[in-house]
Specification:
This protein is of the alpha/beta class. The chain is built from nine helices and 16 strands. It folds into two domains: 289 residues, Aminopeptidase, CATH 3.40.630; 112 residues, Alpha-Beta Plaits (2-Layer Sandwich), CATH 3.30.70.360. β1 and β2 form a beta hairpin. α1 packs across α9 and α7 packs across α9.
Length: 408
């Protein structure tokens, strides 16, 4: 089976590369992916599938019906495969011949690679339809990069109303991992994330008479420093936590003008729901308490975001074993926790799941991280992803059928 899938992946790879390059040239921001959705749906129709579009506004889903298990009267086992396809508000600086044609928008997180790889896996699985021991659900998710996240939007819009998958898998490209390598982690893997928005109101005035003002820049500075204790003195050393202030903006000041107002934005990420809520309260008390003590006002909005990603042990071991069989044990590694976040967590809360990584770095070339304007994907990783995704899905179905038969 591995040799057959690898041969199919090699055969379709030139076409899949062209799909990826089309997607890269035509990136669309979160909740605006209408052209991307249409492109994906057209490719799925060419495979003989009947995609549903507009799920969660710009999402797409298709079912591949495999063989039924004769005589048992049960519904077919269903494995879901998911990719994301929104881009980022970044001006591309790769110099690629197929660089973004949309100014200020770029696939800087590899979602073009994810989507083309899942399309490639779908094409392989359609070729092998007669050998499938169940059903495959292909999920093409919009708006992963923007709250509330495409996963929740699609589920709220009835993604699983007709069929609830039994397992779900997704991957993300990893620039710091070389092409040809794959990694995964059991249990907690990626952090929850919440966005923090402060408005600090003082009383503006002339920079030469600060005693007649309440300086919101000074207040904001004290808050930023004090918030460092949320992690260093309140989070357990055993509980990874990140609190970052990513933006401070004064409203109307200049060299000799103290502004009336300062806005700040940041994130907090961790791996425990109880501590997550406690941290929110500590951030609020510190921020509002300092502002009040200095004669200012503080309004804090906490946008409760994605939960942390938990990989099912059995699903993750299966991906590990399948990757070892497909690539060789020397190409597969166990990964550490990551403080990055993913709305795939919403799927993983409902369905046994595994979110794994595929290396995209071309050895010997400069490294560029995700969300950077010079991110480049080693396109050889796409053929690898096509085949591995398809092989893991087929194996998942076979393993579950074998378990059922063994238990009867």
């Amino acid at each position: 089976m591995i040799d057959k899938i690898k041969e199919l992946a090699r055969r379709i790879n030139p076409e899949v590369i062209e799909w990826r390059r089309w997607l890269h040239r035509h990136p669309e921001l979160s909740q605006q992916e209408y052209g991307t959705m249409a492109f994906v749906a057209d490719r799925l129709r060419e495979m003989g599938l009947e995609p549903r579009t507009g799920i969660g506004r710009t999402g797409c889903m298709a079912m591949l019906r495999g063989k039924r298990i004769a005589g048992n009267g049960e519904r077919p086992y269903c494995v879901a495969l998911r990719s994301d396809y929104d881009a980022l508000p970044i001006q591309e600086a790769t110099g690629l011949p197929f660089a973004s044609e949309n100014p200020g928008v770029m696939h800087a997180c590899g979602h073009d690679m994810h989507t083309s790889s899942l399309l490639g896996a779908a094409k392989i699985l359609c070729e092998l339809r007669e050998e499938l021991c169940g059903d495959i659900m292909f999920i093409f998710e919009p708006s992963e990069e923007k709250y509330p996240g495409g996963a929740r939007m699609m589920m709220d819009d009835g993604l699983f109303d007709e069929v609830m998958p039994d397992e779900i898998y997704s991957f993300h490209c990893l620039p710091e991992m070389d092409y040809g390598r794959v990694g995964m982690k059991k249990g907690k893997y990626m952090a929850s994330t919440d966005e923090l928005y402060w408005t600090i109101k003082g009383r503006g005035g002339h920079g030469a008479t600060p005693h007649l003002s309440v300086d919101p820049i000074l207040v904001a500075s004290h808050i930023v420093i004090a918030l460092q204790q949320v992690v260093s003195r309140n989070a357990s050393p055993m509980m990874p936590t990140v609190l970052t202030i990513g933006k401070i903006q004064e409203m109307g000041g200049r060299t000799n003008i103290i502004p009336d107002e300062v806005k700040m934005e940041g994130i907090i990420r961790t791996f425990d729901e109880k501590w997550r809520l406690e941290a929110h309260e500590k951030i609020r008390r510190i921020s509002c308490g300092i502002a009040e003590s200095m004669g200012a006002e503080c309004d804090l909005f906490i946008d409760y975001g994605y939960p942390y990603v938990v990989n099912d042990d059995e699903c993750t071991q299966q991906v590990h074993d399948n990757a070892c069989a497909f690539l060789g044990t020397d190409k597969v590694e166990w990964l550490d926790l990551r403080m990055t976040a993913e709305d795939f967590a919403f799927f993983a809360q409902k369905i046994p799941a595994c979110y794994f990584r595929i290396g995209i770095h071309e050895p010997g070339t400069p490294f560029a991280n995700l969300h950077r304007p010079n991110l480049i994907v080693d396109e050889r990783s796409i053929e690898l992803a096509n085949g591995l995704i398809a092989y893991n899905a087929m194996t998942a179905l076979k393993n579950r059928i074998k378990e059922k038969n063994d238990n009867h």
